[in-house]
Design a protein that fits this description.
Elements (H helix, E strand, L loop, with lengths): L10 H15 L15 E5 L11 E5 H8 L3 E4 L2 E5 L6 E3 L3 E9 L5 E11 H18 L12
């Protein structure tokens, strides 16, 4: 099993690399991105090149680390941004609804994390209106052709 999609070595090499870097960097004081001090920290590779350069590594809280590795999120000017799959725009995460998600690791450990919906708030509201109108039309309360999809 490959430990991470961007890492070309084996699971043992991946673990050994992380252990070597941990030994050289030391214990974390805060998350590299959000500056949270009271959380569990992951050692994250910043460039996904997995070199032995210490500047290529940082400790992040699990939430920031997960977003850092995701193509849906972008970190810019101390703020998280996310890609809306409907309008195809990158927007600040405050423009998305929050949702709780569970992440289960290979070890069986379950983490509850705050995530954001795939659609921004504006697209979510538009989609909800369309869905509501189509549901009414199915039961014969509103003619479907009187509304524009948009």
């Amino acid at each position: 099993m490959k430990p991470y999609k961007m890492f070309s070595g084996s699971a043992t090499e991946y673990t050994n690399l992380h252990n070597r870097i941990r030994g050289r960097i030391g214990k974390p004081k805060q998350c590299y991105l959000c500056k949270d001090k009271k959380c569990k920290f992951d050692l994250a590779n910043l460039t996904q090149k997995y070199t032995e350069e210490l500047s290529d590594w940082a400790y992040m809280c699990r939430s920031c680390h997960r977003r850092w590795d995701s193509p849906k999120y972008h970190w810019k000017s101390e703020v998280w941004y996310k890609f809306c799959i409907k309008c195809k725009e990158i927007k600040i995460v405050n423009e998305f609804y929050k949702k709780n998600s569970k992440v289960v690791l290979n070890s069986g450990t379950v983490y509850q994390m705050v995530d954001y919906t795939e659609l921004c708030i504006q697209c979510s509201k538009e989609w909800s209106k369309i869905q509501y109108r189509e549901r009414l039309a199915k039961i014969g309360l509103v003619p479907l052709h009187t509304y524009k999809k948009g």
